[in-house]
Prior knowledge:
This protein has one domain. It has a seven-stranded mixed β-sheet, covered by helices on one side. The protein is globular and about 30 Å long. The protein starts with a strand and ends with a helix. Strand 2 and strand 3 (22-27) form a beta hairpin. Helices cover 27% and strands 29% of the residues. By secondary structure, it is an alpha+beta fold.
Amino acid sequence: MERQRVVSSNVDSIGYDVSSKVLEIKFTNGKVYQYFDVPKAIHEGLMKSESKGRYFKSNVRSASFQYKRIEEVKNEPVKEESGITKPSDDTIKESNQ
């Protein structure tokens, strides 16, 4: 799932699949989680919120959506907040070695 990088001290990037209602979040600690049956309005609110971490805690974690931790796919592009797709940090590290 393609995620969009966000400005946050807790959340690195966020993705959402409308058809399956899956919200995918990569945290700044590198862990990636998928949350299931998340309404589109929750994703939109998260993306618009000033504090991604606070919104997540209040509207996702506290709502008790089913979730699972997943392994991140290496070299998957991440969309910057500007909407421009860039290689992941792993791709940049590998190409500089």
